[in-house]
Protein: Putative dehydrogenase
Amino acid sequence: MTDNRTLRVGLIGLGMMGRHHARVIREVEGLELVAVADAFGDPHGVAGGLPVLGSVDELIEVGLDMAVAAVPTGMHEEVGLALAAAGVHTLVEKPIAASTAAGQRLVDAFDARGIVGAVGHIERFNPALQSLRKRLQAGELGEVYQIATRRQGPFPARIADVGVVKDLGTHDIDLTAWLAQSEFETIFARTTTRSGRPHEDMVAATGQLANGTITNHLVNWLSPMKERLTVVTGEKGAFVADTITADLTFFENGTVATQWESMAAFRGVSEGNVTRLAIPKAEPLRTEHEAFRDAVLGVRNDVVTMREGLNTLRVAEAVLESAGAGQMVRVSGS
Structure:
């Protein structure tokens, strides 16, 4: 960071994610948490010496450079539009909104004011995925054939207003398009609801990106085993990123020449070296806040933009449409 200004930051939503945002805002150089708000109070005691305000309007009155909205998904549009109207740079937790129509209104509002609007797709800032993307860009895997993700575990009590596709699945949709640098074109999905809640709690989805990469995503809240894996398979082997441990492993294609002439005609692969790569492991939320700060200061721009967040939500809605119709769906806008 080269700009020496200290940015005044407001936080609305003091639940599970809000408490982590409060901690990291206080830790990051160049940021000062000046106001917090939550109509339901401060259950985790994160306000410190700050008064707990009751609304986004009260938050804005304090005078802010930037804000973080960690409110439930159904409130993202209302809170985001108020912050945009006040000219406050804003990071909204993912997904961008409860519907693509609401997401589009947020994109338009922030574009109209010429201010930074970002979406908290935090997996992009996981050290394993950050390193993986750089390696893919450098050609270490050659052509990418497939990106497969598995995101499974028990139900989190914090989620009430969306199903597993918009809550967890949007992580995988975003990171897949980001790693491949290509948008989703088609999707086919199956969902089920097994836990008695109103929304789907398990999904299996297969897609294809505009650049030809095929994708596969298993996401659920029904597994007692927590798993967060991304597997990218390509011309030279496969990378496996574990975003729980932030480990990145490279499975290299074997280079031993095939002696059997008739077998040599097949373009198969064999097992090669397996390397667990040593990478620095910064906290993803801290990296996300540093990127947002730098975007506000105009130093760099590698946040997840609201337009990208909208594209991700569009794919999530296509997943639900496909599951409901029992057929492949072409993603709108692709």
The chain has two domains: 7-122+285-302, 124-281+313-330. The longest helix spans residues 306-325.
